[in-house]
Design a protein that fits this description.
Number of helices: 13
Helix content: 55-70%
Order of helices and strands: HHHHEHEEHEHHHHHHH
Largest sheet: 2 strands, antiparallel
Shape: globular
Number of domains: 1
Radius of gyration: 22 Å
Number of strands: 4
Strand order of the largest sheet: 1-4
């Protein structure tokens, strides 16, 4: 056994619950859903939400068993809650299909051990492309400054805990520049771009979807590049093609570029048990160097 084998890192332990950023995401998304249903009168059917949650957890369990992994509901709950907030349909079958496609994509579409698409984003765009009975209604959240501030503040907490705040702020800067620049070019009053930015669904996308640590590039430079590409793609879809849900389509289209970015700008792979902005350094091997001395042999 060589020195490297003797000092190989042990298998990673499950992250302590108090340090797992997914718990913060679940708490924030759950509270947003409850607040939206009871305070903002969201058109979220309780039966549809139950179908989404049950399907997501079921597919996570089956996929984990097939992959030889222990059942961990946390990531599936994040995807399911995101679908509950954004997906609108009157069909329980389509809701179940969106949840199954979202969670199943984590196991079925992988490159070098890393799933490619953000699960909730992938489930949404597949159903939007396949059926006219599914839609996303970003305007229903309204443009109240208080709600926008609350979502932004809670989302900022989440992405900081997950060490992916850079991709969120880079995306926000690029998207604000595109929206504000277009408004200035067209001579629109400031109220128009402000209204476009004051959307709850937009903030959920920025703070909870594009910032997914498992589907963004590993390096900081790669994440900033990825964020700018998504913002530019969304601007093209929304302002050139005049299609709705430009952010969702742009994120899905840019996701396959992440493996390429990781090859060009390599960095340490993100792990849930180590949510830090920079990878921890590996400790040096505990080797003792003994200097030879006169009259004493070197061990």
């Amino acid at each position: 056994m060589g020195i490297m084998d003797a000092h190989r890192d042990p298998p990673p332990a499950p992250p302590p619950l108090r340090r797992d950023p997914r718990l913060y995401q679940i708490a924030v998304l759950g509270r947003l859903l409850v607040y939206g249903v009871f305070a903002l009168d969201f058109e979220v059917d309780g039966w549809i939400a139950a179908v989404i949650l049950a399907t997501a957890l079921g597919v996570q369990y089956v996929g984990g068993r097939l992959a030889g992994l222990a059942f961990d509901p946390r990531s599936a709950l994040i995807s399911a809650l995101s679908l509950c907030l954004l997906l609108r349909t009157g069909s329980p079958a389509l809701a179940a299909a969106a949840a199954a496609i979202a969670i199943g994509s984590k196991f079925a579409i992988r490159v070098r051990g890393k799933h490619v698409f953000n699960p909730s984003n992938f489930g949404l765009v597949v159903l939007l492309a396949a059926s006219d009975r599914v839609w996303v209604s970003p305007g229903q959240w309204g443009s109240a400054a208080l709600l926008a501030f609350a979502v932004a503040g809670l989302g900022g907490l989440v992405v900081r805990r997950a060490a992916r705040s850079d991709v969120t702020w880079a995306f926000l800067a690029a998207w604000v520049a595109i929206v504000a620049g277009r408004a200035a070019w067209l001579g629109d009053p400031p109220a128009i771009p402000l209204h476009q930015l004051a959307s709850g669904a937009f903030l959920v996308f920025a703070f909870f979807m594009i910032s997914d640590p498992k589907t963004t590039p590993d390096s900081r430079a790669g994440r900033i590049l990825f964020a700018v590409l998504v913002a530019a793609g969304a601007g093209f879809v929304q302002f050139v093609l005049f299609r709705t849900n430009g952010l969702l389509w742009a994120l899905a289209a840019a996701a396959p570029l992440v493996p390429v970015i990781d090859l060009l700008l390599p960095a340490a792979r993100y792990r849930w048990e180590r949510p830090t902005a920079a990878p921890a350094r590996r400790p040096a091997p505990a080797l003792q160097l003994v200097q030879p001395t006169l009259g004493r042999s070197q061990p």
